[in-house]
Write a structure and sequence with these properties.
Methyltransf_11; seven-stranded mixed β-sheet; about 210 residues; about 25% strand; Rossmann fold; alpha/beta; 7 strands; 7 helices; binds S-adenosylmethionine
C-alpha cells in the first residue's frame, strides 16, 4: 500500500463509501465508539483520515475546533459537500504520516479506519501521539489482527487481495503501540464489530 495507490482507490471509493461504511452496522459501531468519548466543550479535535466525514455527524460539542485531514482530495470533497459550510471545521489535504502540525496541538485525535490503511502505520501512530497534547486522548476504531495468536490462514490468503481495495486486515495494534508504552496509557481496548476484529481503542498521552 502506498499513498499514490490510496489516492486512486479512494477516488473510486468516494462516491459509494458511505453506502457501506456509514450505514447500519458501521453507523451503529461508530455510535458505540463515540459513546462517552472524552471530548469536553471547547476541545481541539483532529480527525486523521477523515474520509467522507462519517464521524463528524457524531460530534455534539458545537464549540469545539475541528481539523480534519485526508490524503485523498476525492474523499475530502465528499466531506466538504456535507460539512463545508461549518466555520468550525477546517479540512486539509495532508499525509497522516507527516503531519504539518506542531507538537501537542490537539486535545483529542480521532483516527478511525485509517491506521489499517496508511502505508506506514508505525509512522502514523508516532505522528498521532506527537500532535496530541499531554493528558489528551487518542480514539481509534479499526480492524486489527489478533494480539494473542497468529493471523488465520484464511486471512493470510485474502490479505493481499483486500489490500488492493485500500485496507490491511492483518495489522497488529500491539505492535503499533509497543514503542510508545511509556508515553501512552491504554484506557480501553474493546471489541466493537465482527467478533472483535474491529476494535475501539482509547489511549491517553501521559508524557
Ligand atoms: C477506510 S477510509 C476511513 C475514513 C474515515 N476515517 C471513516 O471512518 O470512515 C481511510 C481513509 O484514509 C485516507 N488515507 C489513506 N492514506 C492516508 C494518508 N497517508 N494520510 C491521510 N489519509 C490517508 C483515505 O484517503 C481514506 O479517506
Amino acid at each position: 500500500m502506498n499513498n499514490t495507490w490510496n489516492k486512486i482507490i479512494y477516488k473510486l471509493w468516494a462516491p459509494v463509501y458511505d453506502l457501506v461504511f456509514n450505514s447500519t452496522l458501521f453507523l451503529q459501531a461508530r455510535k458505540t465508539v463515540f459513546k462517552n468519548a472524552p471530548i469536553p466543550p471547547g476541545s481541539r479535535i483532529l480527525f486523521v483520515g477523515v474520509g467522507t466525514g462519517a464521524d463528524l455527524q457524531l460530534l455534539t460539542q458545537e464549540d469545539s475546533t475541528v481539523t480534519a485531514i485526508d490524503i485523498s482530495p476525492d474523499m475530502l470533497q465528499q466531506a466538504k459537500k456535507k460539512y463545508g459550510d461549518s466555520q468550525l471545521i477546517t479540512f486539509m489535504e495532508m499525509d497522516a504520516q507527516h503531519m504539518n502540525f506542531s507538537d501537542e496541538s490537539f486535545d483529542i485525535v480521532i483516527a478511525n479506519l485509517v491506521v489499517s490503511v496508511v502505508p506506514d502505520p508505525m509512522l502514523c501512530m508516532k505522528e498521532i501521539i506527537r500532535v496530541t497534547r499531554k493528558e489528551g486522548h487518542i480514539l481509534i476504531f479499526d480492524k486489527f489482527g489478533p494480539d494473542d495468536k497468529k493471523l488465520s490462514i484464511r486471512k493470510k490468503i485474502i490479505r493481499p487481495f483486500v489490500s488492493i481495495l485500500g485496507t490491511d486486515i492483518g495489522r497488529s495494534f500491539a505492535e503499533m503501540v509497543a514503542p510508545h508504552l511509556e508515553t501512552v496509557k491504554q484506557q480501553e481496548n474493546a471489541p466493537v464489530l465482527f467478533n472483535g476484529m474491529y476494535r475501539k481503542i482509547l489511549l491517553q498521552k501521559v508524557k
